[in-house]
Amino acid sequence: MFGRDPWGGSLEISNADSATDDERSRNLQDLDRAALSSSRPLDETQQSWLLGPAEQKKKKKYVDLGCVIVSRKHFLWTIGAALACGFLAGLIILIVKAVPRHHHHPPPPDNYTVALHKALMFFNAQRSGPIPKHNNVSWRGNSGMKDGLSDNTIKGNLVGGYYDAGDAIKFNFPMSFSMTLLSWSVIEYSAKYEATGELDHIKEIIKWGTDYFLKTFNSSADTIDRLAAQVGLGDTSKGPGPNDHYCWMRPEDIDYPRPVYECHSCSDLAAEMAAALAAASIVFKDSKTYSQKLVHGAKTLFKYGRDQRGRYSPGGSDPSIFYNSTGYWDEFVWGGAWMYYATGNLSYLQLATAPGLAKHAGAFWGGPDYGVFSWDSKLAGAQVLLSRLRLFLSPGYPYEEILKTFHNQTNVVMCSYLPMFNSFNRTKGGLIQLNHGRPQPLQYVVNAAFLASVYSDYLDAADTPGWYCGPNFYPTSVLRDFAKTQIDYVLGNNPQKMSYVVGYGNRYPKHVHHRGASVPKNGVRYNCKGGWKWRDSHKPNPNTIVGAMVAGPDKHDGFHDVRSNYNYTEPTLAGNAGLVAALVSLSGEKSGIDKNTLFSAVPPMFPTVPPPPAAWKP
């Protein structure tokens, strides 16, 4: 039987004990008196007699935690393990904090990225009009603030835009091509621009150009009959007189008249400027109001170019001396493609793929300059642009036949760039001679490098490993290798061991043919002839025009760093635009394009079913 132990737990009462409760009580009282009457300590025998038989103290096998009872052994193991883990964790934390931290910095930028940063700065140095505070070219200031306003025949505001080269003329034909090319590079490689921190910069550069273009015609109208083609004058053949080529002055100090050249039938210029506004509208598609303004202006210009046929540079005109256009059919194909991408209107695609237009543009025949992409000839670029449509959207009938032709011709052009074919000569240093040994070769080289690089990215994005040149198959890496070797030549891997981009590398041209860079900003205003001493000086330019790609070497890889010879040392907008496009396409660790942005305004395409074949006649 069991009784209750007043100290907790159960108390077992032996059944063998027959003593009554009264007898127990008397025995306990006798023991208490014996303990009190004794004054000496009790020995073990007495303690044993007093306390009764010894009981083995048994350890508890369980632990009561209130809500649950657990095994004492498991409880102690758990507590020990928790303490050990805590100690170990604390030790690890102490070790981690005690060890010096090594921050993993991102890898240094590649050469193409470094050169890209510099090449973009050239456009800052070429700005006309009110210079923004963040322009970062200390020797430039406001200039051309009366452009258009001082011309009695125009009386329009033509302030802004870019100076073309080493002078202060604004040639709208190559300027608009430059903005189109820059916009194309942003559409394809916006992620790369963003990764280098240059996306906002390049968009600002483009907007500076397009804002100016919108001033060159009545951009709010649907129909126009004139277009400003040029600001400034460069022809010196009619005798000495102050103009932008006769004088050698900082643009900020110009005080001579700057006439505006206006055209009334200029299909080439209108179509190119329409392409610039259309391409930029895709770049600024997130700014809906501005994008729509650009699209409207592009529509007006393209319509004007189609309605008022003619070249913007007829014989004897100032543009014909410096930027003579050989025709406008290629601009119709080029501009029509950009208009389609900007609007999604199939009428523009129908025009750009019209076989008759392509024939006039020279798409079906070769020639010594076939495949050369430049401010004058847009066919090679237009064919690459329309091949993109076939690769990714495959619109089918009725466009497939001509798009396939453009695609095949693009493959032929890419074959012509390769060294194993003899379409173009090469210098001993490896520079392709796209202009057949004529001066100023680099602007054509960088454009070809961009086309090769972007086309290789198109093929990669379409899961196409390469292309055929006759019976031989070449992987896309061959195109990128071509682009890299040509750009590497520009950046210093050439017989002169000289970078042709100012400010890049340890050795680059110091006598650039450029008025603003060669005349010091020293508080002295040099007049028209007063600046000649700086033009003729053998000293390096006092101002470094960072990022300017000069005209380049001759056909023997020779180069003369002299200010007086523009065929070697003058940079241009169009040349630098091609350089920027090529550099961004090659920059970064990975290649790749944005497949979708160019098609953002293009509606889903449902190919038309081709007509059935004619009925069989016996």
TrEMBL record:
Q: Name one GO molecular function term.
A: cellulase activity
Quote the catalytic activity from the record: Endohydrolysis of (1->4)-beta-D-glucosidic linkages in cellulose, lichenin and cereal beta-D-glucans
Domain Glycoside hydrolase family residues, every copy: 112-583
In the record, biological process GO terms are: cellulose catabolic process
Enzyme group, top EC level? hydrolase
- Is ATP-binding one of the keywords? no
- Enzyme Commission identifier(s): 3.2.1.4
Q: Which InterPro entries match?
A: 6-hairpin_glycosidase_sf, 6hp_glycosidase-like_sf, Glyco_hydro_9, Glyco_hydro_9_Asp/Glu_AS, Glyco_hydro_9_His_AS
Annotated segments matching region Disordered: 1-25
Does the keyword Glycosyltransferase feature in the UniProt annotation? Answer: no
Name the record gives this protein: Endoglucanase
Organism, by scientific name, is Acorus calamus (Sweet flag)
Which taxonomic lineage does the organism of this UniProt entry have?
A: Eukaryota, Viridiplantae, Streptophyta, Embryophyta, Tracheophyta
